[in-house]
Specification:
The structure holds three protein chains of three kinds.
Chain A lengths: L15 H57 L6 H11 L4 E5 L2 E4 L3 H4 L2 H10 L1 E9 L2 E11 L5 E11 L1 H51 L14 H62 L1 H31 L8 E4 H11 L6 E4 L12 E4 L1 H18 L4 E6 L10 E8 L6 H4 L22 H11 L3 E7 L3 E9 L5
Parallel strand pairs in A: 7-9
Antiparallel strand pairs in A: 1-2, 1-5, 3-4, 4-5, 6-8, 9-10, 10-12, 11-12
Helix pairs in contact in A: 1-2, 1-5, 5-6, 6-7, 7-11, 8-9, 9-11
Chain B lengths: L1 H16 L9 E5 L1 E2 L5 E7 L2 E7 L7 H10 L3 H5 L11 E5 L2 E5 L6 H14 L13
Helix pairs in contact in B: 2-4
Chain C lengths: L5 E5 L3 H13 L3 E5 L2 H7 L6 E5 L7 H11 L4 E5 L4 H9 L4 E4 L4 H13 L8 E4 L2 E4 L4 E4 L2 E2 L4 H12 L4 E3 H9 L8 H14 L9 E4 L3 E4 L3
Parallel strand pairs in C: 1-2, 1-3, 3-4, 4-5
Antiparallel strand pairs in C: 6-7, 7-8, 8-9, 10-12, 11-12
Helix pairs in contact in C: 2-3, 6-7, 6-8
Classes of the chains: A alpha+beta, B alpha+beta, C alpha/beta.
């Protein structure tokens, strides 16, 4: 779990603007193509039907008239008469059939669709049927020959004609329709792109504006053009931005005021504290001689004066961070040495162990880093002090360099591990809050309640972070990660 | 989006189905070719079923003559294309009031009866049912 | 036993002044006090050996007092700053302070600092070295340049003695901080830089092109080679 990292959701590039443009274009194209196809399809169908009807009608009429005409002159049906009939109707692609025997274009008889033969025979009416012969559309027509009073003579005449020419005309229509549709599609795409651009330009501007606003530029306003819905949206955006800026400014002013107040109060407290601290040693010395209640009272005064002084110092330190006036004085520091000295000078050596416990000869390799030693000392002191106060032994502090596995490159980590009761998950984030109290029932703790907050600020000032891990059986583990800094 | 899809689909189906010249079944296109002359028609058998043949010279002949023509059988040309008759020469047609009676010394085949029925149906107004002739 | 050193405490706040006076007395110091800068400058003639100076003073402020004290002699000064704001510390050091402590200060800390500063002026056995026209007499604790005595504060003197003791050797700021000021490892190395600047102003012909006290970038300082 990360307590120190400033997890802000990464701002994604607004990819939807591309999607919107594509969608607009596709929709426009589909509508154009759809209506174009429907119109072209309808006119195509009717044109095709007209072409077919016309040629079929012509062919059928011609067949009927020719047959009627031809069969009127000789009286039928001798074989010669039928042959003559064929000659007169037209020897090409025509066959006269009598009792399933064909006269004329012999091979034609087998190619006539059986369905057509049956229809002509059974209905005794003129019929036609279209088929496709090796890719070529063909029209077959057949007619019975009847006497003038309508009695079938048993003679049937069939004729075949190719519809290739009609097919060509229809294909020409298709090609025309396709060409027109393609042109319409191109125009539609162009129009859609232009329309999308005009719609998306303000949307993009709005998106960029929102990103700028989200990035902290609260003065962001967008020019309002026109009077359409998008202009209304832009106006709303501007209003929202203005209100946001107002309230943020007000909040910032109020917060700055209250912080300045804390800083001022702290500074004002310093002078009387300076006087009080100056005499605490005296009070302590005299307390021994006072004895009884007076001694107890004097010791309370002295102890609380020191605590008050610590609190004020911490408050001033925090207000310096808040004001952005905290400065780093970097120099090369051996972190292991610093940790050991910090622990030693605070008198924690008996309860805190620094890991690794050095080589057998006691000489651990130095872990150097560019850092502000005073601030690093504060960090280590606050974390270890926290462990000593709230945790339980054994308390260990481990210093690891970049080449230790499991640690980020170019980092030095300081891990403070105690074996206390641990922190519940919801508490882990809050330990770095100011005046955080681990135990709510405890009114006051040993420290000022600002120690971890100050440690956090100091680590952040170094560009590092503090992670907290805790589990009931394992105790609590604070890990400080500090960048080594290339210029070390 | 589904509405758009169905639109596209419909357009595609329409386009494909409407393309080119498609085969059809046989389609009725009106009455057949009609010669300018009248003729008597007699029915011989073709593959066991009655099949017409014109007899222009019997145009105004009576039933008896038509039956005789049936008995006389098909012409050479008609025989060549497979027509034959089952009506024997001994058949006589007797008019009995408003009825025609077919009189034959032997038993007539069903096919022969059909031949006679179809022929007479075309030429004479007689009540012959179930003759199963090719339709007029 | 050496005579009790006389400390001049210049502090405008009555309570702080009284408290510190009391504490310093108990530490064994002879304390004279002043509540303003002007008053403090008057008391300077009373054989004062070290000044503890509050920076925030009515009238002439601590920085000005510092400069005037420096103009008149080499009495060491420990600044008392109400806040360790960096700008104040740097200004104070540039004005000539030898060290600084942050209020509120524990009396024993102030006492330790006073002791450390005064010890810098103690004589030790030593030789006389000369570098060009600069002559350093380690036993007499005097530095002359071209025959004329240089008025160095004890801190400046101790710094030049430390550096010239091992000519050409590079000292890190932390080493100098420990050796001259007696600070622990957390000490503020800007004190060293401020003192080096002041020292250069006195010993170098052209302080911007130092010959005696040279900067070794990234490491620290060295004396010479001349």
């Amino acid at each position: 779990m990360t307590a120190a990292a400033d997890d802000r959701p990464t701002t994604r590039r607004p990819s939807w603007s591309v999607g919107l443009r594509a969608r607009l274009t596709v929709a426009f194209l589909l509508v154009t193509l759809g209506s174009g196809l429907a119109a072209a399809g309808l006119s195509y169908v009717s044109a095709r039907n007209a072409i077919l009807d016309e040629s079929q009608e012509q062919f059928l009429t011609q067949l009927r008239d020719n047959v009627a005409d031809a069969s009127s002159r000789p009286r039928m049906p001798s074989g010669d008469a039928l042959a003559a009939l064929v000659d007169q109707v037209g020897p090409e692609d025509t066959i006269v059939v009598y009792a399933d025997v064909g006269i004329g274009d012999g091979p034609l008889l087998d190619r006539i669709p059986a369905q057509l033969r049956r229809a002509v025979r059974e209905r005794a009416r003129l019929s036609f049927q279209r088929t496709v012969e090796s890719g070529e559309p063909v029209l077959y027509a057949g007619t019975p020959v009847t006497t003038s009073n309508g009695v079938p003579t048993g003679v049937e005449v069939y004729a075949r004609t190719s519809l290739a020419a009609q097919q060509d005309r229809i294909d020409g229509l298709t090609r025309q329709a396709a060409a027109v549709l393609t042109a319409a599609a191109v125009v539609a795409v162009v129009v859609a792109l232009v329309a999308a651009r005009s719609v998306l330009r303000p949307v993009r501007a709005l998106s960029r504006g929102a990103a700028r606003l989200g990035g902290g530029d609260l003065g962001t306003r967008l020019p309002v053009r026109g009077n359409d819905e998008l202009a209304g949206l832009v106006r709303s955006f501007n209003d929202a931005a203005a209100r946001l800026e107002d309230s943020v400014t007000r909040l910032q002013r109020e917060e700055a005021n209250s912080r300045r107040f804390v800083a001022d109060v702290s500074h004002e407290l310093r002078t009387p504290l300076a006087a009080m601290i100056a005499v605490t040693d005296t009070v302590d010395d005299e307390a021994a001689r006072l004895g009884g209640d007076g001694a107890a009272a004097a010791r309370v005064l002295s102890t609380e004066t020191h605590r008050l002084a610590d609190l004020v110092e911490n408050l001033i330190e925090i207000s310096r961070f808040d004001a952005g006036r905290a400065e780093l004085h970097l120099r090369v520091v051996d972190v292991r040495e610093l940790v050991e000295r910090t622990i030693a000078t605070r008198g924690w050596s008996p309860v805190v162990h620094v890991l690794p416990a050095g080589q057998p000869d006691g000489a651990a390799p130095p872990v150097t880093i560019r850092a502000d030693p005073r601030r690093l000392d504060v960090v280590v002191a606050n974390l270890v002090g926290n462990a000593v106060t709230h945790g339980a032994e054994p308390i260990t502090v481990a210093v690891a360099a970049a080449d230790v596995p499991g640690v980020d490159d170019d980092c030095v980590t300081i891990t403070v591990h105690d074996h206390g009761p641990g922190l519940p998950p919801e508490e882990r984030q809050r330990v770095f809050n100011r005046f955080y109290k681990a135990d709510a029932s405890r009114g006051r703790t040993e420290g000022s309640g600002l120690g971890l907050a100050i440690a956090w600020e100091n680590v952040r000032l170094h560009g590092g972070r503090i992670d907290v891990a805790s589990s009931p059986g394992e105790g609590t583990r604070f890990t400080v990660s500090l960048p080594r800094r290339a210029d070390a | 989006m589904t509405r758009l899809c169905s639109w596209v689909l419909a357009a595609a189906v329409l386009t494909v189905s409407a393309c080119g010249i498609r085969p059809t079944g046989s389609i009725d296109a009106g009455p057949g070719a009609r010669a300018s002359w009248e003729s008597a028609v007699v029915y011989f058998l073709h593959d066991g079923r009655p099949y017409p043949a014109v007899r222009p010279d019997l145009d105004s002949a009576g039933p008896q003559e038509l039956v005789e023509a049936l008995a006389a059988g098909p012409t050479t040309h008609e025989q060549d294309v497979g027509l034959r008759t089952e009506v024997p020469p001994s058949v006589r047609l007797v008019v009995d009031g408003d009825r025609l009676v077919v009189d034959s010394p032997g038993r007539l085949s069903r096919a022969a009866l059909q031949q006679i029925a179809c022929t007479l149906q075309r030429s004479v107004t007689v009540g012959v049912d179930h003759a199963d002739c090719p339709v007029p | 036993m050496t005579p009790v050193p006389r400390v001049l405490l210049i502090e405008d706040d009555d309570s702080v002044r009284s408290g510190l006076e009391l504490a310093l007395r108990r530490q064994g110091h002879d304390v004279v006090t002043a509540s303003t800068g002007e008053q403090g400058l008057h008391r300077l003639d009373d054989h004062v050996e070290i000044i503890v100076l509050d920076l925030m003073l009515p009238g002439i402020d601590g920085f000005e007092v510092c400069r005037r004290v420096r103009a008149r002699g080499s009495v060491p000064i420990i600044m008392l700053t109400a806040r360790n704001d960096d700008i104040d510390v740097v200004s104070g050091l540039e004005a000539g302070a030898d060290d600084y402590v942050v209020k509120p200060v524990l009396p024993r800390v102030l006492d330790a600092r006073i002791g450390a500063v005064l010890r810098r002026g103690e004589r030790r056995a030593g030789t006389v070295d000369s570098f060009g026209d600069l002559v350093i007499d380690r036993s007499a604790l005097s530095v002359t340049k071209g025959g004329s005595q240089l008025g160095l504060t004890p801190t400046e003197l101790r710094l030049v003695l430390e550096l010239s003791g091992s000519p050409s050797q590079v000292f890190s700021r932390e080493q100098l901080l420990r050796a001259v000021w007696g600070h622990d490892y957390l000490g503020d190395s800007r004190i060293v830089d401020a003192c080096v600047q002041r020292l250069r102003a006195k010993v170098e012909d052209t302080p911007s092109e130092p010959v005696y006290i040279q900067t070794v970038r990234g490491f620290g300082y060295r004396f010479g080679p001349v």
